[in-house]
Design brief:
It is a single chain. It is built from 14 helices and 17 strands. The protein is α/β, with parallel strands linked by helices. The strands form 4 sheets. Strands 6-7-8-3-9-10 form a 6-stranded mixed beta sheet, with helices on both faces. The protein has a 4-stranded antiparallel beta sheet with strand order 2-1-4-5, sandwiched between helices. The protein has a 4-stranded mixed beta sheet with strand order 11-12-13-14, with no helix packed on it. α13 links the parallel β15 and β16 (355-358). α5 (126-136) packs across α6 (141-154), α5 (126-136) packs parallel to α7 (170-183) and α6 packs across α7. The chain is globular. The two termini are 39 Å apart. 36% of the residues are buried. Adenosine-5'-diphosphate is lined by residues 17, 44, 46, 64, 66-72.
């Protein structure tokens, strides 16, 4: 482990639930999948050969249908669930090799967890609930109070220190849950469907606050969700799980523009991808369709249009493939790599040739046809 960008790294992790994990693993090694292993042995594979890394300071979302293994995965990270096989590294240190005492220390100091059920103690005040983890960790009273108050302030609950959980709304109770995790100042915050039980408006508000908090603190957050809108809104990268396996990991843009299979595609059905896709996510450059403006070539028949570039690679004009018609670029509205797709659509509609996509220096980075646009936007 030398890559310091990676805070958490897991290698070939399996979790088998049941009393005969070794038998299940033998079948896995013989090439059997989750379903066959269950049929033959009755053992349930919760996580199946997961290998990936989470980067320092990112919000990493784990998405998947119910039963796909998300909760199992996140509990493997702090070994609330012991992996059947495989290795887990935190900051380059192997978690899977720690003694019980070392592990307890890691859980207290490095990993904070927020659950869907707020899991507050009803007879304890907001302040006591927030300081609870610190008390267990042996932090002294005044330090506990200071850190708990600070955490409550971060989640917008200053002034509520002496309330009791039953006096708070669901959203406020979850803020306490979040404050309790933050009070420990964990290296990684694990959130398992933490907002799933909240009303839509409150949920959206909490998402916004989490994004803000993360931007300020640059804390690594691993967030589990089964809701694609939530995943896209808060995730820098998203891992999609199906049947215990991690099927694909990518930015929201990558998952939308290049879904690995139909399962991934299904999540984006009904999602308006033009809201988050940018021209650069779809543009591709065909070298056969470009040439230097002062050394015109005859383009391959059928290529459609040629893009003439200057010494700097900047787009000067577009010609049809017989080079008879020139389209000057001067009066065209330029499309850049970061131009939102819905803006590109209206520009594409006015051009006879695929839209040239430029970087901020005006260099041609790729083109986008009307067909490509419609296919991408229509396929979800
Ligand atoms: P998710 O959080 O994505 O809904 P889980 O991680 O809870 O999924 O579950 C993944 C799979 O593992 C499911 O098939 C579930 O039934 C099974 N599973 C989870 N926990 C246990 C357990 N303690 N014993 C047996 N099977 C379990
Ligand atoms: Mg779950």
């Amino acid at each position: 482990m030398t890559n310091t960008d990676e805070i958490l790294s897991i290698k070939n992790i399996y979790k088998v639930f049941g009393s005969h994990p070794a038998e299940a693993m033998q079948l896995v090694e013989a090439g059997f999948g989750k379903k066959e292993v269950f049929e033959k042995t009755g053992q349930v594979i919760g996580v199946f050969d997961a290998t990936f890394s989470v980067k320092r300071g990112e919000i990493f979302v784990i998405m998947g249908l119910s039963g796909s293994g998300k909760s199992t995965m996140v509990r493997l990270f702090n070994r609330l669930i012991e992996p059947t096989s495989g290795k887990i590294y935190l900051n380059g240190r192997e978690i899977t090799g720690l003694t019980d005492k070392e592990l307890l220390d890691v859980r207290r100091k490095e990993m904070g967890m927020v659950f869907q059920s707020f899991a507050l103690m009803p007879h304890m005040s907001v302040l006591e609930n927030t300081a609870f983890g610190l008390e267990i960790a042996g932090v002294n009273e005044s330090e506990r109070q200071r850190r708990a108050k600070e955490a409550l302030q971060q989640v917008g609950l200053s002034g509520q220190e002496h309330s009791y959980p039953h006096q708070l709304s669901g959203g406020m109770q979850q803020r306490v849950g979040l404050a309790r995790a933050l009070a420990n100042d964990p290296t990684i915050l694990l959130m398992d469907e933490a907002f799933s039980a909240l009303d839509p408006l409150i949920r959206s508000e909490m998402q916004g606050e989490l994004i803000k908090l993360q931007a300020e603190q640059k804390r690594t957050i691993i967030f589990i969700s089964h809701d694609i809108e939530e995943a896209i809104r808060i995730g820098h990268r998203i891992a999609i799980m199906e049947g215990g396996r991690v099927i694909q990991i990518g930015t929201p843009q990558e998952l939308i523009s290049q879904p690995a299979n139909d399962y991934v595609r299904t999540f984006f059905k009904g999602f308006d991808s033009s809201k988050i896709l940018k021209a650069g996510d779809l543009a591709r450059l065909d070298p056969d369709s470009t040439c230097h403006v002062e050394a015109p070539k005859s383009f391959k028949p059928g290529i459609g249009f040629g893009y003439l570039l200057n010494d700097q690679g900047q787009l000067v004009s577009v010609v049809d493939d017989s080079s008879t018609t020139h389209y000057s670029q001067h009066e065209q509205q330029p499309v850049y790599l970061d131009t939102p797709l819905h803006e590109v659509l209206s520009i594409a509609a006015t051009l006879p040739y695929p839209v040239p996509v430029l970087d901020r220096n005006g260099s041609l980075k790729g083109t986008l046809s009307k067909n490509q646009l419609l296919q991408t936007l229509g396929s979800h």
